[in-house]
Every structure is written in C-alpha cells, then in structure tokens.
Specification:
Helix content: over 70%
Largest sheet: none
Oligomer: single chain
Number of strands: 0
Structural class: mainly alpha
Distance between the termini: 150 Å
Order of helices and strands: HHHHHH
Number of helices: 6
Radius of gyration: 63 Å
Shape: flat
C-alpha cells in the first residue's frame, strides 16, 4: 500500500475522532448563559400577556356587539310601541278641521263605510233525514238462555242465621258471668282502701287536736 493511501486513511480516521470529541464537548459545555435565560423568560411572559390581552379584547368586542344588538332590538320595540299608540282625539279633530272635513256626525261616519255595495248571500241549509233501519234486529240469532243454579230456600238460611246468633249469645253470657266477680272484688278493694284512708285521716286529725291542747308538745 502506497504512502498516499495510508495518509488519507489516517487523516480520515483522525477527522472522525476529532468530530466525535467536538460534538461531546459541544453537548457538555454549550449551555445558555444567565442573561440568555432571562431574555428567554421575558419573551415567554410577554407572549403570555399578549395572548391574554387578545382574549380579553375579543371578549370585550363580543360583549359590545351583543349590547349593540340588544339596544337595536329595544329601540325597534320602542318605535313599534310609539307607532301603536293612537294620537289624542284633539289632534285628530284639529287635523280634520284644518282639512275642512267633518269631525262628527253622519258625514264623519260615512268616510269609513265601504264604497262598494254589499251583496246579501242566502245560504240554504240542507238537512238530511236519516231513516233508522231496524231490519237487522230480526236477523239476530235466537236468544241464549242463561243457566241459573237453584239456590237454597230462604227459610233454611234464616234458621242457620238464628242458630249462629244463639251460639254467639251463649258464648258471651259465660264471659260476662266470669268478669262480674272480678269486678266486684276490685270494687271491694277500692272501698276498703278508701275506708282505711278515711280512718287514718280521722286519727291524724285527733292527734293534731291533742297536740294543740298540750302546751308541751313540739309538733313531732
């Protein structure tokens, strides 16, 4: 291999090595300075403010357009109301008087009558009489007989009811007979309690009278 080829290969290899080293140093040390960072931050803040103010202006423009549209609608409604209000009668009468036109009476009313003659139209009412045809009733099939079961006799039912009433009365009578002695015992106990309370009250009253008569009693 000649010297020329060898030098070219070595030069190529060394250039590749130097390119790799330069790229590594550039990635490590090529960083923005503090001033550059501050400038970049200021630019970002300014862009944010610009976007915010643009949004505010767009919203204000939209609100102004809506307000103008509402004002225009209200103005049109006010004009329509003003047109709908009839003028006062004095102004109308003065206007007709200036035009030498009558302001009252038959001549004034004739102005508002239609000029063309009115034609009377007679309308004939046509009344159709509907005749009822009952011939279809005759074509109906024979009547269907309804089956009725024979019921029990009324006398038998009355006897059953009387037997039930008698059995109920017989059941009620022993219950009443059983409850009467209990009621009498309760009444006797109440009378005894009342008598005992009355006796105690009489004894207490007599004791209190004795204590009042005795000068040495201290009310115990």
């Amino acid at each position: 291999m000649s010297d020329l080829v060898r030098t070219l290969i070595t030069g190529l290899v060394t250039s590749v090595i130097f390119l790799i080293l330069v790229w590594i140093f550039w990635k490590i040390y090529d960083r923005p300075s503090k001033r550059q960072l501050e400038v970049e931050q200021e630019r970002q803040e300014k862009s944010k403010e610009i976007r915010m103010w643009r949004a505010v202006e767009a919203q204000m423009a939209q609100e102004e357009a809506e307000a103008e549209a509402l004002a225009l609608i209200e103005r049109k409604k006010a004009e329509q109301r003003a047109r709908a209000i009839p003028p006062p009668s004095g102004v109308v009468s003065n206007a007709f008087a200036k035009l030498d036109a009558p302001t009252s009476g038959e001549q004034f009313n004739e102005q508002f009558k239609p000029k063309q003659g009115m034609e009377e139209i007679q309308v004939e009412e046509l009344v159709e009489e509907i005749q009822q045809d009952d011939s279809d009733v005759l074509l109906a099939p024979e009547l269907v007989e309804v089956r009725q079961d024979s019921g029990e006799d009324a006398e038998h039912l009355l006897e059953l009811l009387e037997q039930e009433e008698e059995s109920e009365e017989e059941e009620i009578e022993p219950e009443i007979a059983e409850s009467e002695p209990v009621r009498l015992e309760a009444q006797e106990t109440e009378d005894q309690d009342e008598k005992a309370i009355a006796d105690e009250k009489v004894d207490w009253d007599s004791k209190s009278e004795k204590d009042q008569d005795d000068p040495w009693s201290v009310g115990w």
